[in-house]
């Protein structure tokens, strides 16, 4: 078994690279579940439905106004943009997930005894392209 260290991950949102500001990301893939149980059954019968998913990215706040996550993400709230997530880093043949996402929420956290952090929550909007990165 070969393992992959998370520090190689690359994340872009709406064409802006958030990698240098991020320290955690998560993609969740799921599908609707439909109960198609009929009379005479002793247990539920289910069929799959439409696929769905969410993503979140978080990291440390940066005071650079022009390129900070705050400056990049806040204007995107309520819009659909492209998310590219590369869990093994950038490079020909490495895996990536590319999907249009609705930017649903941007949160900043300001603890008194720690660094300011941020999180963005994203809703998948259409199919995920999970093909290898091109050459």
The CATH topology corresponds to Elongation Factor Tu (Ef-tu), domain 3
By secondary-structure content and strand pairing, the structural class works out as mainly beta
DSSP strand (E) fraction?
over 45%
CATH top level is: Mainly Beta
* Rough outline: globular
Q: Provide the CATH architecture.
A: Beta Barrel
The overall strand count is: 7
Tally of individual helices: 1
Summed up, the domain count is: 1
Mean pLDDT: 96
Low-confidence sequence ranges: none
How does this structure look, described?
The protein has one domain (6-124): Beta Barrel (Elongation Factor Tu (Ef-tu), domain 3). Helix content is 4%, strand content 47%. It is built from 1 helix and 7 strands, in the order ββββαβββ. The longest helix has 5 residues, at 69-73. It starts with 9 loop residues before the first strand and ends in an 11-residue tail after the last strand.
Task: Draw up the topology in text.
Layout: E1 10-13, E2 16-17, E3 22-35, E4 46-60, H1 69-73, E5 80-86, E6 97-109, E7 117-124
Give a short summary of the structure.
The protein has one helix at 69-73, and strands spanning 10-13, 16-17, 22-35, 46-60, 80-86, 97-109, 117-124.
